[in-house]
Amino acid sequence: xxxxxxxxxxxxxxxxxxxxxxxxxxxxxxxxxxQFQHFxxxxxxxxxxxTSLDRRIAQIYPxxxxxxxxxxxxxxxxxxxxxxxxxFNANDLGADADMDGQxxxxxxxxxxxxxxxxxxxxxxxxxxxxxxxxxxxxxxxRRLRASKSASENVDLLERAGLK
Length: 163
Known about the structure:
six-stranded antiparallel beta sheet; 7 helices; alpha+beta; two-stranded antiparallel sheet; disordered N terminus; Chemotaxis protein chec
């Protein structure tokens, strides 16, 4: 039987749960909360792709997850134009990035300007293998939308198997 130290080292680190406040510094770098830094440091390949698919929400993808998306775009046959358009948005606003030693990730100028990310509080959470970064206005819009039918939504999902 291996000791606990060895078991902890081989256990995959799960993405953080919850909503986190953050903001860009004056050079356009996003200081990641400690839990996000820990997750990225646990990855075998630490390269990131920072972009927006919808031109409203910024996403930070571990490069391995982004490569899966690139394959998805190539193979999506239901509506190839949609895949091309979303991939175009991603490439138009996206750039490869790395987390620096202080836990910051540079968001490129086009992305910062298009999404109006500078000089305001931002909100960040993990979702489906990547991180979403929302402006405060978009966070409030999403919070209001999610609140309007919260009870009905929970009831529906519980009937479908949510625990």
